[in-house]
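$ fold --in a.seq
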Amino acid sequence: MPANTTNPAPASPEEIVWQGGPSQVTNLVRFLIDLVIAAVLLAIPFVFRSAPGWVAALAVVPLAVAGFHWLRVRSLRFTLTTERLRIETGILTRRTDDMELYRVKDFTLTKPIALRLFGLGDITINTSDHTTPRVTLHAVSNPSHVHDLIRANVERQRDRKRVREVDFAPEST
């Protein structure tokens, strides 16, 4: 066994700070439209006696579309740790994207009226990461709290890694 092959323990273990995902409220209009279409398709054979009975079976299509959109939102998960933001997407094939917090350049909290009615908001994060230069946490609950958690952990990671954001102004001619 070679000498001095042990890895030093990390300064502090990574901990989960917050987990969540977008609200199904984002699908509200889509769900209502799909429900109306399904109801119309179910009603056609009763209203128009000459319509074939299989028309009612087509009501499955808008309900399946609504189910797909519900599942797509349900499968999007955000995990904020003390070191990174992890974004997991996909229904059949899962994709995990990690964004290191020390790479965050700026973040914005937006609360559109439609989301604010439900206590939701969007957090947009601009980063220096080439694969994910912009990340939006859409329709998250308690967005002010999540925004503050991101800010605090970004600052902690910048201090820990001794990273600073430097902007260069273009030269004027």
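$ fold --in b.seq
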Amino acid sequence: MAPRPLPGTPTAVKMVLAALVTVACVAIVYVVIWFYMAASYRDAIGGWAEARRGEGLEVRYARLEMSGFPFMLRVTLEKPGLGAPKAGAPWHWDGARAIGEARPWNPRRVRVMLAGAHRIAWTRHGAPVRYRGSAEELTAEIVTDAGGRRQVWLDISGLVLKGESGELEIAVAEAHAEAWRTTSTSADHLTATAQVSLEASRLWLPRGLALPFGNRVGTIALKASLMGAIAPGRLPDSLAAWRDSGGTLEVHQLAVTYGPLSGRLTGTLALDAALQPIGALTAKLGGFFEAVDGLRKAGLVGARQALMAKVVLGVLAKRPPGGGAATLNAPLTIQDRRLYVGPVDLAEVPAIRWRDGGG
């Protein structure tokens, strides 16, 4: 039997050298791939910005930097901005910094971080409205699979934006949202093409919305699915085609605590011939009587309607066996831009004016 070569013999040295050469080749290939992907990301961002500018949008940033080698692809945009100065209602956003991250071996999963200072302006009733503030956390994670399905996760905390007067206007203590959508344009009305879920707490909304119980919302929880595909094109035309094919929005849960009202809704929404919302939902409401009084004081419900609502719906309301506030279980209907709670015609639903670029 031939003796085994001892360590340090030419055969062992060759094996070690071969391993080192292999590792070196793999490392060189990885470095080349990393820098190629970094250059591709840079070019993709520049191409996207130019395409948006060609559509009339304003895209800007002071500096673009690639970093994160070797285990991360990180894009940092200093002083990013986005706006539509030529739109019918011009708007723009400016941030302090935008950071995007992806793993080289998983480039379809991108994390975008926008914490820090923000300035937002838009046009309302022909006049500019401006806010400035900051967010402790504003992070989105986006995943696109090979089939075109896109998933998004969004986390917000400590967001505070103030109007020009310096008063607190918009704030979000905590919010988490998840959504996905497909690119299918042939799905029928029995197939979900998008879904969204949202949980948010301690919200302050703009006073300009003139909400009936003030601008503070305690909590919101939403889960809904879009059934059927909305094809690209002019939004009114696309929505009409979606409606005609039986498209609906399935509300699996909408739970809100706002002012005296706490409610939980489930049901189905759709669009009528005028592209206005119609729907049939089931509602469980607490604080309903106080809410009706608030609507009457805000001038959104007439005195006669408020009295009828409290009398008729009071029959349906139930109090817990041990006492406490009454809760109302009743059907909620939206039709012909009217809101009905049970048999009571409660209020008018504001009209939605769809534009080509959104609602």
